[in-house]
Every structure is written in structure tokens, then in C-alpha cells.
Amino acid sequence: MDLPGTDLDSYVARVVASESHHPDGTRTVVEAPAVWTLAHKGYSGSGRLDVWLYASEKAASKAGASLALACGLDEDGAAVKAHRARRYQKVLARYEELHPGNLLRVQSACFQTDDHGMLVFGEPEPQRT
Q1: Digits of tens for pLDDT over the chain (129 positions)?
Q2: Which are the contacts of 50, defined by CB distance < 8 A and separation ≥ 6?
Q3: pTM of the complete model beyond 0.85
Q4: What is the enclosing helix (H) or strand (E) of 103?
């Protein structure tokens, strides 16, 4: 896919996909390619979940905090103060606190890979034997 003026590779980052802590004190960390997303489910859109893709966690958090203000938190002093201080995750948490049942979150979305590290799109084809 080619989007003019966009370097799609800059949207993919390696993130911690899982972390296991073992009884012997060791841990196993698995990294995977992922993108940063902002998910919003609010009053509009008949309960629709909207998901946007961002080049970084910081960019997604900033956009989410701005969306929270646009959705009514601009009248909440704590949210406005947190936004001015660039504490965007606090704004997102405040949105969910004041709007139970709604969702406004930033998280990574890992790509699915096969046993060889190749990206998998859709359901794998069944193997014929």
C-alpha cells in the first residue's frame, strides 16, 4: 500500500508481546512487530468501536487525550490540567472514569507471524496431507 507522504515502515515497532516469569527467577520476553492504536467506543456510532493507527505510543496518547477533551472533558479541570502537563494517559483514564461503558485506550497491536517470523494475513490455509 502506498500512501503519499507516509513512510509506513515508521509505523511498525518491536514491542513486548509477552513476558513470562518463571519459578527459578528467570523471565522470558517475546518481542513482536506491532503498531500503536487508539481505540474509542463512545455514545455516538451506535456502540461502534473506532480504531486509529499511529506511528508511536506518544502520538496515539496525545491524539486520544485531545479526543477526550473534544468529547466533553474540556469542562473537567483535572483533565485539562493533565492535558496541559502532557500527561495524556491520565486524561484517557479520566475519560473512562467519568464515562463508564465507554472506551478510550492506547495499546499496541501485534502482527500475527508464522513459525518462520513471516507475517500472516487472514486465516491460515489448511494443510493438505
Answers
A1: 455 556 767 888 888 888 999 999 999 998 888 899 999 997 766 778 899 999 999 999 999 999 999 999 999 999 999 999 999 999 999 999 999 888 999 999 988 777 777 777 665 555 555
A2: 39, 40, 41
A3: no
A4: strand 103-110
